[in-house]
Amino acid sequence: MTAHPVDEKLPALKMATTGLQHVAAMYAGVVAPPLIVGAAVGLSPTELTFLTGACLFTAGLATFLQTLGFWKIGARLPFVNGVTFAGVAPMTAVVASTKDRSDALPIIFGAVMVAGVLGFVAAPFFSKAVRFFPPVVTGTVITLIGVSLLPVAFGWAQGPDPAAHDYGSPTYLGLAAATLVLVLLLRRFTRGFVKQIAVLLGLVIGTLVAIPFGVTDFGPVTDAAVVGFPTPFHFGAPQFQLAAILSLCVVMVVSMTESTADMLALGEIVERPADERTIAAGLRADTLGSALSPLFNGFMCSAFAQNIGLVAMTRIRSRYVVATGGGFLVLMGLCPMAASLIAVVPRPVLGGAGVVLFGSVAASGIQTLVRAGLEKDNNVLIVAVSLAVGIIPITAPHFYHAFPQTARIVLDSGISTGCVAAVLLNLVFNHLGRHRDDDEVTAPMEPGEEIVDRRTGPGPAVVGA
Fold first, then answer.
1. Are 115 and 84 in contact (CB under 8 A)?
2. How confident is the model at residue 172 (pLDDT cuts 50, 70, 90)?
3. CA nearest 351: which of 169, 139, 197, 100?
4. Beta bridge partners of 82
């Protein structure tokens, strides 16, 4: 019996290169939170490098849990796990409210551990919500995932520092456009293995092209140590503060909501639909990874949506490829110099490749919506309003500025708000009360056209009113 593509083991070279491509796609997302939080704490460059390496290391461990799994833990899908960006705002808020900055990271780590344990316990109950995710909901959420990630790619394309005078310069945008065109050409005019690693080749060639423009910085490689290990509790024993715990528990709920949506999206793409059991196992991996991450000085872990785009584009569905990527992340955590090689890739080059990756996620969502029964008025309304709600944080980032910070953790996530809106609207329109099968979108009637009553059959045409 032929193994499902998800369980396929590819040749070693192909496994390594495609796994590295997954690392390249998500690297910037993993290192951004520790860089932001570490800077807020006031860490030295050496300590900041340590914190970043620790987050890479724990991302690799969490990816192992998700892809390989054991017992009832792990979705066993090609799922990359890493530090969730949803926790950045509350973690920096914890830093700002801590008198002694040296206590900030231990307080954050303690809160993450508690949130992870509570999330692990709640995972099987949370997964039962899968029956409220029909195609009209999943298609909407998948589309929102892609649309929500595109601004990240656009930001990368403009340069590394929004405060710099050359941010958004023609040079940066030109490099992003060149990388995008290169990936498209490789996808169009190559075959087989080269076609499948088009994004990785685009990143390598784009980095080389950027050298004459002075955009490629090899400083991280020369300054990095060869070997380093994330010593447990390097920044101090975890501290447990109620306000921080409550704040990170809210982030955990947001993270679990997004992970559920991501698993449903990935299940559709790899043609192994995520059922209740799969989602429960995946959420256990997320939450267990989060609970263990602070032991090695890492933050809360969650599924990375951008890698779903890579799976959708390359059609390489093997979970062992992503597990190999997890191995690279662990090695990067143990070898700062290796980690710095990925850091050499200029942000504009990442931005050009990101347009393809994130756009592929949105396209997958549209494909799902095509099968969602949009000939029905109810489903059209569900999609229309949910997309509008989910796009608010993208098009109007300060829309919820008057709300409390805790509420904004949820409201500022378009994926979460759009997902909640889609589930609630689906309940109202398709589950509560009498279900109607004749709520179809109809074109304006032509003169003399018959009105058809589904219960009594064709009737005489009605002219006038």
1. no
2. very high
3. 169
4. 302
